[in-house]
């Protein structure tokens, strides 16, 4: 068993990687991506958080969230999101009675400072290019990139080449 310890900081900002079971292409249709969006809206309505960056890939999701002051419970939020999606997808059931939709755990990283935040946001938005799905970050449909452009974080032409600050990162 792992000695991995999660870091819970009230009002913290976190980077997440959440992966489908056995890297199955869970989000390979608009309808399935919409299931995830519905789950996010539902959970955000009950337990608010801010999505600062997000990309939905066929077999995984990357996100940067800001939690509200006084709240560090990202575990319950992800559990509820995963449960919402799992209830609506036809999948095999394991011996524990769980649907084989998601990997049991996920990766989180507490953002330490502005530079760390920028690198993780860049990683999120560059991910479809890194995986060879598009040639520019703005060409991927399931991401927050255009919101970031509207906020002035990027130009529309950003993401044609791997940003220097995330070169050689492997956060999958």
Radius of gyration: 16 Å
| Strand element count | 4
CATH superfamily: Transposase IS200-like
| CATH class membership | Alpha Beta
Parts with pLDDT < 50 across at least 5 consecutive residues: none
- What structural class do helix, strand and pairing data support? alpha+beta
Say what the CATH topology is: Alpha-Beta Plaits
General form:
globular
Mean pLDDT score = 92
Beta content: 5-15%
What percent of the residues sit in helical stretches (DSSP H or I)?
Answer: 25-40%
Known CATH architecture: 2-Layer Sandwich
Separate helix tally: 4
Largest sheet: 4 strands, antiparallel
Q: Order of strands across the biggest sheet? A: 2-3-1-4
Q: Give the N-terminus to C-terminus distance in angstroms.
A: 21 Å
The ordered H/E elements are: EHEEHEHH
What would you say this structure looks like, in words?
With about 170 residues, the protein is α+β, with helices and mostly antiparallel strands. The protein has a single domain (about 15-165), classed as 2-Layer Sandwich (Alpha-Beta Plaits), CATH 3.30.70. It has helices at about 30-45, 75-85, 115-130, 145-150; strands at about 15-20, 50-55, 60-65, 105-110. The chain has a 4-stranded antiparallel β-sheet with strand order 2-3-1-4. The protein is globular and about 45 Å long. The protein starts with 12 loop residues before the first strand and ends in a 22-residue tail after the last helix.
């Amino acid at each position: 068993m792992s000695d991995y310890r999660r870091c819970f900081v009230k009002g913290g900002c976190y980077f997440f990687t959440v992966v489908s079971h056995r890297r199955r292409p869970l989000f390979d249709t608009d309808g399935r991506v919409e299931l995830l969006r519905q789950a996010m809206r539902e959970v955000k309505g009950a337990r608010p958080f801010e999505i600062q960056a997000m990309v939905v890939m066929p077999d995984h999701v990357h996100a940067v969230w800001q939690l509200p002051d006084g709240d560090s419970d990202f575990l319950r939020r992800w559990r509820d999101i995963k449960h919402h999606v799992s209830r609506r997808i036809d999948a095999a059931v394991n011996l524990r009675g769980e649907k084989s939709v998601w990997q049991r755990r996920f990766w989180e990283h507490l953002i330490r400072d502005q530079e760390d935040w920028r690198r993780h946001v860049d990683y999120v938005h560059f991910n479809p290019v890194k995986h060879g799905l598009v040639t520019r970050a703005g060409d991927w449909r399931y991401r927050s990139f255009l919101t970031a452009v509207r906020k002035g974080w990027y130009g529309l032409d950003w993401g044609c080449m791997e940003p220097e600050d995330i070169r050689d990162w492997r956060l999958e």
